[in-house]
Amino acid sequence: MTSSSAASRKALSKIASNRLQKELVEWQVNPPVGFKHKVTDNLQRWVIEVNGAPGTLYANETYQLQVDFPEHYPMEAPQVIFLPPAPLHPHIYSNGHICLDILYDSWSPAMTVSSVCISILSMLSSSTVKQRPEDNDRYVKNCRNGRSPKETRWWFHDDKV
Amino acid sequence: MAEVYCGYDFNLNTRNFDFFSLPIGIFNFSVGWHHLLEEVEEGNVQDISFGGYESDADQVMRGVSKCTIEKLEQKSCSPSNGDASCCICLEELNGIKKVVEIPCSHLFHCKCIIEWLKYNNSCPLCRCKVEEEE
Fold first, then answer.
1. Interface touch A147/B125, C-beta < 8 Å
2. What CA–CA distance (Å, rounded) separates A9 from A70?
């Protein structure tokens, strides 16, 4: 297992697997605008291409999201990170970790991969400046050894960007 | 649903946290963790809540009491409820005998919502509290 995340170590439960199959079918019929799921035979890890929305700082740029599902998805949030190079954004660290509450303590099982993708694109689109978080270097240094962003205690205070 | 961002601290985060599956190195940066782990192992910490927030008691991940779960209204779901599906498993609710309505009127499969409420006190759809906190 090359994954750095604890999230993907245990196989999906039957409930998780059924739910993901449904999400995959729905995605194929009705993918969120600006996203492309790169098809693999691994249901537990999705790699999704994101296109920056036209008219935003990220227009004409393409990034990749890696989504790893835990054994008990959707009771627990998926782990979502950007694969390198991560977009320059005040809430996205250079190791690809994303500071967005719905990926952590505000997760709800009513959310789907598709709705999470839309939230991330919305976060990108509303950015007015292309820069790393102020504490990027310190955070990334603390994350060496491949800790998962789900093991970070995030706090969330800024709804402007 | 407002989304908010940023700031972090390190945390023992998930309810199924498996200390022993983590790379050993990640314990190195925080002495506090060692202390916490020792106490957990010795059984000194009661009611420890992973995913909790020191600064905000409301954020502590806490399930609903068994008593409240038992009192939830069970009903059967008929086609008159529309083509409703359970937002947790995405399967249909119609024709299902064991459907639960929580106080905010949202419907779920009995099994699905009980599993969520074991560790959370909120509606997956509207975040209304299921159990009033004392």
1. no
2. 8
**Taking CB atoms and an 8 Å limit, are B51 and A19 in contact across chains?**
no
Q: How far apart are CA B80 and CA B107, in angstroms?
A: 14
CB contact B115 to A (< 8 Å): yes
Contact criterion met (CB < 8 Å) for B6 and A154 = yes
Is the ipTM above a cut-off of 0.90? no
Q: How far apart are the first and last CA of chain A?
A: 35
Residue A143 bears catalytic tag: no
User: Can you give the pTM of this predicted structure?
Assistant: 0.76
Does residue B22 belong to the interface with chain A, where contact is any CB pair within 8 Å?
yes
Token couple for A129: 């400046």
Query: Which of A72, A142, A161 lies closest to B29 in CB terms?
Result: A142
Distance CA A59, CA A62 (A): 8
Q: Residues A106-157: pLDDT tens digits? A: 999 999 999 999 999 999 999 999 999 999 999 999 888 788 898 887 877 6
pLDDT tens digits, residue range A34-77?
A: 999 998 889 999 999 999 999 999 999 999 999 999 999 999 99
